[in-house]
Design a protein that fits this description.
Rossmann fold; 12 helices; about 300 residues; 3-stranded antiparallel β-sheet; alpha/beta
Length: about 300
């Protein structure tokens, strides 16, 4: 390990003078290499938070993904991520820069897609950026028209709304790893999701900004139906990780209740759009009258009737 650190330090001036012009990004990549070296020989972890580190992900997803791709055989080093905004902060940027994967990123903003296409990463790497507002009706066509079909390495879903419904509809790809956002506020006991609406926008659906997505039990049930094992959540209770059940991964498999992590984020808003810093069940009370689709009972009811 000491020799590895020394080699990295010696290589740093070449990185700064070379292809990576942004020095801040250089230091991020250097620090990430140290984390990778620390986790690459770990055989088993009790929970995925043990291998977290952040390079370009919002939280510790970069470390979890690095751990998983070293545990799972991946033939096609290809990823798809949607809901990426300008792609500066994302779950797959480190895969692109560090592991040289091929990727497709999708966002509904023309401004964000232009930013990605103007970034130097767009010509240095095999990245396709598509501007589309994602629905369950168009998702497979977007993949096919972009040339991404079949067995791929990783899919990352984070659209703050119809995540459950969109993944439910995907059948043109078969990723080996899936990262899917869940709404921790919905709890760990009930399989619920916001009802499908093609034009769903989180910031417009309810002033609190807490009404979106699906519960972890809902996402886990969908994953199981699609042939995936739930292998854990990140430490902030925002993303769940799934691995295809047909792969010999040797990872611990969790139930939704076992792997649930309650989010501590205090992102609730007032009707005037200001942060109100609500925590725990107080967040749920803000949206208790909003409708959710109860997957087990196949009906739409107010949240307060199922939680």
């Amino acid at each position: 390990m000491k020799r590895y650190v020394a080699n990295l330090v010696a290589y740093l001036p070449r990185l700064i003078a070379g292809d990576i012009i942004n020095q801040n990004e250089t230091y991020i990549m250097l620090a990430a290499q140290l984390h990778i070296k620390a986790i690459e020989h770990i055989e088993f972890v009790g929970c995925l938070s043990e291998v977290e580190f952040k390079a370009f992900s919002q939280w510790g997803e970069d470390g979890i993904i690095q751990y998983l791709i070293n545990k799972i055989p991946i033939e096609d080093r290809v990823f798809i991520e949607f809901g990426v905004e300008n792609y500066v902060e994302s779950n797959t940027r480190f895969l692109l820069l560090n592991n040289n994967w091929k990727g497709l990123v999708i966002d509904g903003s023309k401004k964000h897609i232009k930013y990605i296409r103007d970034d130097t990463i767009y010509w240095k790497h095999d990245l396709t950026a598509v501007c589309q507002f994602i629905t369950r009706e168009n998702i497979n066509d977007i993949f096919k028209s972009s040339g991404f079909v079949g067995d791929i390495g990783l899919l990352s879903i984070d659209i703050d709304g119809n995540d459950y419904w969109v993944w439910h509809e995907i059948d043109s790809i078969r990723p080996r790893i899936v990262v899917c956002e869940y709404n921790s506020v919905f709890g760990c006991k009930h399989r619920i999701t916001v009802p499908y609406s093609a034009g769903f926008i989180r910031t417009e659906a309810h002033y609190s900004n807490l009404y979106y997505g699906a519960s972890l039990p809902a996402i886990c049930q969908l994953a199981k139906n699609k042939g995936y094992d739930f292998v854990g959540s990140n430490s902030t209770g925002s993303n769940a990780f799934f691995v295809r059940s047909d792969l010999e991964h040797g990872l611990r498999v969790f139930s939704a209740d076992e792997g649930y992590v309650e989010s501590k984020m205090r992102e609730s808003r007032s009707k005037q759009g200001k942060l109100t810093f609500q925590t725990g069940v107080d967040r749920l009370r803000l949206i208790q009258d909003m409708p959710v689709y109860d997957i087990g009972k196949n009906r739409i009811v107010p949240i307060k009737d199922v939680t």
